[in-house]
Request: fold
Amino acid sequence: MNFIKLLSLIIIISITYSCNEPLKGSSDLIYLPTTLNVIPIPNEVSKSIGSFVIDKETSFVYDEEIKNSAKLFNQYLSKGLGYKLKGEIEFSFSNLFKQTRSVVFSVNDSITSTEGYRITISEQKLLVESSTDKGAFLAVQTLRQILPTSFENSTYREEQINLELLKINDSPEYSYRGFMLDVARHFHSVDDVKHLIDLLAIYKINTLHLHLSDDQGWRIEIKSWTNLTDHGSKSSVKNEKGGFYTQEDYKEIQKYALKHHITIIPEIDMPGHTNAALSSYAELNCNGKATKPYYGTKVGFSTLCIDKDITYKFLDDVIGELAKITLGEYIHIGGDESHSTKESDYIPFIKRAIDIVKSHNKKVIGWDEIANTQIDKETVVQFWGKAKNAKLGAKKGSKIIMSPSDKIYLDIKYNDSTKIGITWAGLNPVDDAYNWNPESFIEGVTRDNILGIEAPLWSETVVTRADMEFLVFPRLLGVAEIAWSKPGNRDWNSYKLRLAKQKERFEVLNINYYKSPVIEWGH
Ligand code: TNX
Reply:
C-alpha cells in the first residue's frame, strides 16, 4: 500500500469513527444508554474515567430563563447534602474567569426539542443545557436518578458527593406522555393527586388526564349547575368515597402540575357514563325524571337526552366553565360505551359536543368510538379497545393516543392472585405492559399517526392512595419508557434490571409498589 493510500485510509477510518461516535470527547468510553440506571432510558449516553465533586466549594450558576429548574436542582441537592450551593446568575464578567468547580444551567437554543436537554459531567463542571425551562426540568429528573437514592428522603449524610463523568443527549420520542386517573368511581383528594403528580414527574410523564364524571359521581364544581356537586358528587362505587373538586381546588391542582411541567386534561364523559348528572337534574332525562344514584360498576346504561335543547345548554355551561379554568389546550369529551344511545343519535350528538368545545377555544379528545362520527383532523382519538376505530381515526387524519386496554390499563390485574384490580381485559403483567410497540400495534396506525401514549387507571377497585400506588407501580415506568425512549434503545432485558434498581427509590419514597415476580428485586 503506498503512502497516499495509507493516508486516505487513515482519514476515512477516523472520519467514520468520529461520525459513529454519538458524543464527542477524547476519553469517552462507552456508548450504551442501557448501562445507565435511568428510566426512561436516554437517547445517547457516554461515560469516561474520573469524577466530578460536589461539595461546599462547588459554585452554582444558571441562566435566568431556566432558573426555576436550576433552583429546583439546587434545592434537591440540599436535601441530600444539607446545604445549598452558592447560586448566581451566569455570564457575569467575573464568572467567565472563575476556575472553580461549578454546576451550570445554561440555555442552548440549538437544542430544538422543547423537552430536550444535554447533561455533560466533566471534572470541572456539571453542565445542563436546554432551550426551555421544561427541558431543564426533565434533565433534573434524570440527575435525580443519577444521584444517590437517599437524596429523595433527605437521609444522605455525606457533605460531598462524587459523580462519574458522563454525557447525556436526550429528547422524547412522543410529545404526549400521559396517565389517567378516574376520580369518578372513587374520589381521590387534591393531596393524593398532588402526590401522584410528584411521582409522575420523576418518570417524565407530562400529561395527567382526570376522568371527572361518570355514572357513579360528578367531581367538579359547576357554578351554574350546583346540584351536580350538591347531589351528584355524594355517590361512588359501593357508596365508599364521594367528593368533588371546587374550581379553586382544580386551579390549585393545575398550578401544582404546571410546576412539574404536567398538563391537566379534564374529561366530562358523554353522552353515556352520565348517571350522576341525570340523577342530579330531572330535566336532563328524556322522561323528565331524575334517576337514582348508582353505586355499581356496570357500564353503558345511561345516556343524556339527545333531542332536548336543555342538554346542549347544559353542555355549553359545563364546558364553558371548565374551559375558562383549564390551562391546557384540550378538553376530553369521553364518548365511550354509549350503548344506550342510538347510533343515529350518537353521531350528531358528538358533532355538537365537539362544536361546543371548539366554541370555547379548546381542542377535543375522545375515546376511540368517536372516530365513527364527523371528526376533523384536530380532534384526537384515544384508542382503548377497538383497533378498527383507531384505524378509522387515523384515516380521517386524526392523531391517536395509544391506551391499549390489554397492555397498559393499569386497573387490570397483574395476575390472578393480586387482590385489587379487575380482569375484563385479561391480565396485564409487568412484562406485557412493557413489551409492545405503539408504532406497530395496529395495522394502519403508524408512527406519524400517533400523538403519544397514555396509561389509564380506572378506579372501580381503587379506594386509597395505597391502592392507587399498587396498580401504578411499577407498570407506569414501562409506559413512561415506551413514551419517551427511542424504540431502538428499548429492551426488556435491560429494562428489567433497571426497574429492579428502582426498588430503592420506591422504598425511600414509601410507594406501595407491587413486587412483581417477573422482576428480580433483590433483597
Ligand atoms: C372501560 S375504557 C371503560 C371504563 C371502565 C374501564 C374499566 C373506557 C373508555 N371505558 O368505563 O372503567 O373499562 O377497565
Q: What stands out?
A: The two ends are 60 Å apart (CA to CA). The pocket of TNX is lined by residues 299, 336-337, 367, 384, 409, 411, 422, 458, 460 (CB under 6 Å). The longest helix spans residues 3-20. The chain is about 35% helix and 20% strand.
